[in-house]
Amino acid sequence: MDRYYLAVDIGASSGRHILSHMEHGKIILEEIYRFPNGMEDYQGQKIWNVIVYLRKSRQE
């Protein structure tokens, strides 16, 4: 049975999901989803809207 691992990379301007597994002794990485990312204004301050990013991660 193959094992797969999911990594979530949240950068300054975009985020992505990367799926990985081992194949013939090598790590194989595949970007499976990318989404825009950025700061938002909230009550006069810049914030990362983490709730929105978690929802985006679960949609795909």
What do you see in this structure?
The structure is a single chain. This protein is an alpha+beta fold. The protein has one domain (5-59). Helices cover 17% and strands 55% of the residues. It is built from 1 helix and 5 strands. The protein has one helix at 50-59; strands at residues 5-10, 14-23, 26-36, 40-42, 45-47. A 3-stranded antiparallel sheet has the order 1-2-3. It has a two-stranded antiparallel sheet with strand order 4-5. A hairpin with a 3-residue loop joins strand 1 (5-10) and strand 2 (14-23). The protein is elongated and about 50 Å long.
Quick overview of this protein structure:
The protein has 60 residues and is α+β, with helices and mostly antiparallel strands.
Strand proportion, as a percent range, falls in over 45%
The percentage helix is 10-25%
Number of domains: 1
- Radius of gyration over alpha carbons? 15 Å
The order of strands across the largest sheet is 1-2-3
Order of SSEs, N→C? EEEEEH
**Class based on secondary structure composition and strand pairing:** alpha+beta
| Shape type | elongated
How confident is the prediction overall: mean pLDDT?
Answer: 87
Number of helices: 1
Low-pLDDT runs of 5+ residues are none
Provide the descriptors you would attach to this structure in a database record.
17% helix; 5 strands; 3-stranded antiparallel sheet; 1 helix; 60 residues; alpha+beta
Write the layout of secondary structure elements.
Layout: E1 5-10, E2 14-23, E3 26-36, E4 40-42, E5 45-47, H1 50-59
Antiparallel strand pairs: 1-2, 2-3, 4-5
